[in-house]
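Summary for the funding panel

The consortium committed to producing paired sequence-structure records for every protein in the target list. Below we show the first two records in order, beginning with the earlier of the two.
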Amino acid sequence: MLEHSDCLQEHADKCTVIPLSVDLETFGGNTPSVDLPIDERPTLLFVGRLTYYKGVDRLIDAVVDIDANVLLVGDGNQRESLERRVRDLGISDRVQFLGRVDDRTLHACYDAADVFVLPSVAESEAFGIVQLEAMAYGTPVINTDLPTGVPWVSRDGKTGVTVPPDDSEALADAIAVLLDDPKRRATYGEAARRRVEAEFSRERMLERTEELYDRLLNKGEWL
């Protein structure tokens, strides 16, 4: 955001980036057993509001020819139209709308997912903390190359794959590549967990915040 926001450019020297975080004692730990509507096929997961900038319609289009379970967690004003799109495409047997779920079910979804997909299409998606939650479970991420923090959270070719926004064909290709390559998924997933531990843990966020206060209050950098 600091690199791409016109509003911040003249104030860049006053900005310090402290990323959002996840509690690694909660995410990526022991997962309760929950029955999910999936079978032996690989599982794709989306978590978020079903609204315009999330690009879930692009994800639905992308999985038409993908033999996988698709779990959509969340609710929103586009749910009805998205459900109709799934029915019209004839893929209701493998695309499941779970709506709002409790914490037990959410963690079970992250644990079951082979690939997490954040197909956002607009700059309203500034960060995508759900990426961190998935990465904490060692799950590779497919995200989009928005001029925001989204592709910075999960890095292309390191913790997952980044594709152009609003491009269902590119999204489908990325999904197919990862589902066809378990070794790559494992490599990306392991790197994703390490990245969360190093950069996005709750402890790291608090350390950075404390360091900033120390510089400003004790060393007079605000003068």
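The next record, for a separate protein in the list, is shown here:
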Amino acid sequence: MPVVRCKICGITRVEDALAAVEAGADAIGLVFYAKSPRAVTVPQAQAILAALPPFVTTVGLFVDCARSELNAILDVLPLDLLQFHGDESPAACEGFRRPYIKALRVKPGDDIAARIGLYGSAAGVLLDTFVPGVPGGTGEAFDWSLVPQDLSVPIILAGGLTPENVRAAIEQVRPYAVDVSGGVEASKGLKDSDKIHAFVHAVRGA
């Protein structure tokens, strides 16, 4: 089975970013959505990015962000990848000179393959749990059996993943990558280094 990549999202502190790197995470996520308890300011993000060593992918998470605001952030932050977690159309995700992934919230009855097909320009698609009125970070898992096999783009699995369940999730879904936030936290926005290490270890052992 191919190596499954691992992203630790909702990083708000330099020490949490470095803990993720030390554990062997492939990517970290920074949330630019003011309503999130894991939101970061541009100065916070600058400090985190400046502390990272090479070969760690940095992902900026946005929710229906105005194009002018997003461009202003990209002017000062060297983010590698954009993650769109709102109701953005394909056109709204394009044109930022960065690859992007589109988050789709999954619920029973969804035609996941058809929804993914709308975002043909995406580098990957993240599948998260549908909770009304909440764009992500719910800490709740969805029914992994809803994910079709042999989808046309790399799939990033998110939603309620923990060190305890991520191995089973990988074995069932066989995603390209997994994405965790709340499952490795001491409290919202503050990561637990031991949980990060346990999560990455479980991913590598799957």
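Regarding this second record: The chain has one domain: 5-205. Strands lie at 5-8, 27-31, 57-62, 81-84, 100-106, 124-129, 155-157, 177-180, 185-187, 190-191.
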